[in-house]
Write a structure and sequence with these properties.
It comes from Streptomyces violaceoruber. This is DUF4190 domain-containing protein. The chain has about 350 residues and is α+β, with helices and mostly antiparallel strands. The chain contains eleven helices and nine strands. It folds into three domains: about 60 residues, no CATH class; about 120 residues, no CATH class; about 120 residues, Four Helix Bundle (Hemerythrin (Met), subunit A) (Up-down Bundle). It starts with a helix and ends with a strand. About 0% of the residues have low confidence.
Length: about 350
Amino acid sequence: MSGLAVAAFILGVLCFLPAVGLVLGLVALARIRRRGERGKGFAVAGCVLASVGLALWTLTLSTGAAGDFWDGFRDAARGGGTAYSLEKGQCFTTPSGSLQGVTYDVDEVPCAREHDGEVFASFDLPDGSYPGDGEITRAADDRCYALQDAYAMDRWALPTDVDVYYLTPTAASWRTGDREITCLFGNTDERGTLTGSLRNDGARFDADQHTYLLAEGYLNRAMDEVPAAEAVEDDLAGYRTWAGQVSEALRGEVAMLDGHEWPAGAERPVAALTDDLRSAQEEWGLAAKAADLDAYYEHYGKGYDLVVADSTVTARKALGLATTPPDYEGGEGGGDDPGVEV
């Protein structure tokens, strides 16, 4: 019995590597004629089945049916109850009760109930080979912290135990086309939970509040860019660059505050705030030009004190906004590993 004939038949039945099955079948027929071996029926059947399989593979690839199949498979895997199904504004719990590690299943719950995370944004990474965990984490850090203000515009209204987390692709899910990063709010305590929605976007504020928060956004985004080095001594150049960014952000904030006509009850408090912010802008600018650590710390300290001065609280109170300051010096939290892979 020709082993090549049997192999051709098996590949033909399985529709696996049809081109190989066809070649084996033709070779088997030639050897059977020369050597008088048995198995001609297997070889012929293998050739026929392999030819049919080859035709089907060609048709599938040319019409895009293969892509449709995998898209359908992926969509089914991303149905309700999975991390892939989460959308902006939804709250959920995880089986482990944690926003660290790897997860697939999640349970969507009303935000009024106790939950582990609340989705505030999502975005897709570009196609290509898997960039690695480090590169994905950097992309999530850069975009998620920048996107939070569109969902929770007033950072002062966020509880002190809330920080940014994210769901990111794994190497395995990347191979199925997963490119999405989902940005979340979660508790800074790995085992802590949240209750109630944190959403406070522009539609929830009046015109004066909205303008004030837009102006304050300049400072918030600059503060997010604090260097990774915990000590200024470890990266004085980086901290000087950051101080320059804060100075420019304060310039933008002051310009927007000055350009708005405030209601009578808020006009004087906002004017007092802009005076402090102008002084802060000068101090941060001097910190950016500091020749040594002592000079940097001197101007940084004065600038920081002016940024968190009581005039900000007074202006916010006059506008009916939250009056509990965020911890600007706390850095980007969420633990050592603020990302969950899915």
